[in-house]
Hints:
The protein is of the alpha/beta class. The chain folds into three domains: about 1-135 and about 345-360, ATPase, nucleotide binding domain (Nucleotidyltransferase, domain 5, 2-Layer Sandwich), CATH 3.30.420.40; about 145-340, ATPase, nucleotide binding domain (Nucleotidyltransferase, domain 5), CATH 3.30.420.40; about 380-575, Carbamoyltransferase, C-terminal domain (DHBP synthase, Alpha-Beta Complex).
Amino acid sequence: xxxxxxxxxxxxxxxxxxxxxxxxxxxxxxxxxxxxxxxxxxxxxxxxxxxxxxxxxxxxxxxxxxxxxxxxxxxxxxxxxxxxxxxxxxxxxxxxxxxxxxxxxxxxxxxxxxxxxxxxxxxxxxxxxxxxxxxxxxxxxxxxxxxxxxxxxxxxxxxxxxxxxxxxxxxxxxxxxxxxxxxxxxxxxxxxxxxxxxxxxxxxxxxxxxxxxxxxxxxxxxxxxxxxxxxxxxxxxxxxxxxxxxxxxxxxxxxxxxxxxxxxxxxxxxxxxxxxxxxxxxxxxxxxxxxxxxxxxxxxxxxxxxxxxxxxxxxxxxxxxxxxxxxxxxxxxxxxxxxxxxxxxxxxxxxxxxxxxxxxxxxxxxxxxxxxxxxxxxxxxxxxxxxxxxxxxxxxxxxxxxxxxxxxxxxxxxxxxxxxxxxxxxxxxxxxxxxxxxxxxxxxxxxxxxxxxxxxxxxxxxxxxxxxxxxxxxxxxxxxxxxxxxxxxxxxxxxxxxxxxxxxxxxxxxxxxxxxxxxxxxxxxxxxxxxxxxxxxxxxxxxxxxxxxxxxxxxxxxxxxxxxxxxxxxxxxxx
Length: 575
């Protein structure tokens, strides 16, 4: 049974394809379009998935779309009645308009040449948050677990809690738009001077430089409820009837300022682009992060008591808050936490397909997902043809020698672009499309920002560590394949790996498994054998663009930056 999952006309549009419940391919459309968070129909991602599966659309049995316009109709009507004039146009277009759902069928017809009448019976519309929940639970190793989906908004929900058992997901409760932890965090992200869609991670990176001095003031804005959920004081925000996220003709998500006059009165004006970050801004970031963590723990503690379970699966945009994720087992009674590689909206394609396979079609569970390598792959031959066409000098080095060659470059202060195997599904580079450096160098962060990244100095770089050595370097020993949790680094190790130790002594962990990432593992192991440190600094292979997808994009990034070495499979280019 083939199932094609699609996230379309929503930020981070994507496609995923499964055969008998096993994911063959999954990728975001932005990797092909080269536009971050692209939100149109993912035609190139769909074509890629079908090609990887070796089938045509006609051979797909089911098509799952991670959106259901029929979800929460009564709640939407109630919202309109409460805002009868100002909200009608917004709600009609955002929540009731089925035009784009129909457009998906037409797009698939144009793509395949198959008549719409043959495509329509295959379509399953899966609610946004149920798709998120499915992406986490069905990919997890747990037969039974609590589930949390939490983000800005989708299908009129912002938070959904439930329980998964075998092939069944039961929704226990949810929070309706506009009461949203994602909206809360984005509003303060904007106030702190980071206006673009997806900038929330910058607040998370800034927070360790401040103290949470404003938490009590923030408690007036976000109220915990006795049912384990929360409500916002909406008087602090932009009127929800005016809408929060729109999509322009260029298919980019546009978020207007979400903070209202009351937030400005309480917390000051929006920081301008020219204005430096002050200690006040850092303290506000720390406070926003702190109250966000408390909200997540409030939800999870209630969910744990309600279900009695010790395992939890989490997805949604807020699940990308790796700092909060790393604290869950130390602040709740949950002992195990699974978060998928694409916990954000790109994972909707994966989740809607899994929901269709297990929940709707009652098919048995398959193996847990610990690999994010489901994207594009290129051979040495394809890479050589590209380099020859551009008259670029290169070496071809076999694996054993390659690991020695690259590790020597890293030890000698080199910055290396590492392009290996299938691209990752999700926002994190995990050793397939990564830029690597020596974590022992105290100047590595400045080196990277000067040579390549040109990004804010307060943002951290992550450690990739061989999974057998986590306990030696981190205070929490966990399997973290997708770089989705931040943990404290042991104090005595701060001086050894300063480049990946953040201001508060933590690191965003990626555990590298030899069975999942053999070549990346071997490179780190070779570096570790020479230095005594089985860790590499890992950051995404890009420069103010989506992560590179093809050899040509990797080469272009190498040529326009001051990277020292480019490694694409067994092909090495040096300056």
